[in-house]
Specification:
four-stranded mixed beta sheet, three-stranded antiparallel beta sheet, 12 strands
Length: 172
């Protein structure tokens, strides 16, 4: 893909959009980003959507969950944020992408999509896994250790969904 074919996105000192080995285009770091630093803010149109069945659960390919029946249809960097089962980032609050660990220059910025999805009917294939195809499901299906390793970078609403589903899990 040539530079002229890339989408028009505002300049950022921290990140840029380029072809991804995971899927289509992705977001990459321009420089080293320290653990806990804000990487970018997700911007876009707010969507209210009620899931009724599997077809409606799979609506909105780029949407990022913000709460019960509440989504953001991202523009700019958020639109190209790819999934990884070993993500470099999580989401603090509802729209702030923050580093879960130190990120090297030119490393792809990724999140675990399950941390922004509460619909049990939702699923997707994981293209980031080198061990073959795996299915990603909503937050209720995350293993406890993985859930805890993402904290505090899981939006509060999704933390509550997880805790309700797992009686024995305590979250600060």
């Amino acid at each position: 893909m040539k530079k002229k074919d890339l989408p028009k996105i505002p300049y950022s000192k921290k990140v840029f959009v380029a072809p991804s080995k995971i899927h289509g285009l992705g977001v990459f770091s321009r420089r080293e980003i320290r653990k806990g630093d804000t990487v970018f803010i997700i911007k876009g149109r707010i969507v209210h959507w009620k899931v009724k069945d599997e077809k409606t659960a799979l609506q909105g390919e780029h949407w990022i969950g913000m709460g019960k029946d509440l989504w953001i249809d991202p523009i700019y960097f958020g639109r190209y944020l790819n999934h990884s089962s070993s993500p470099s980032c999580g989401i603090k609050g509802k729209v702030t992408v923050c580093a879960l660990r130190s990120i090297k220059p030119r490393e792809e910025i990724t999140v675990d999509y399950s941390t922004t999805e509460d619909q049990v009917l939702w699923w997707m294939e994981d293209h980031s896994n080198k061990k073959g195809k795996r299915v990603v499901r909503s937050i209720q299906y995350l293993p406890v250790q993985k859930f805890k390793s993402y904290l505090p970078f899981i939006p509060r609403y999704f933390r509550r969904v997880y805790v309700r589903h797992h009686d024995n899990v305590k979250v600060r």
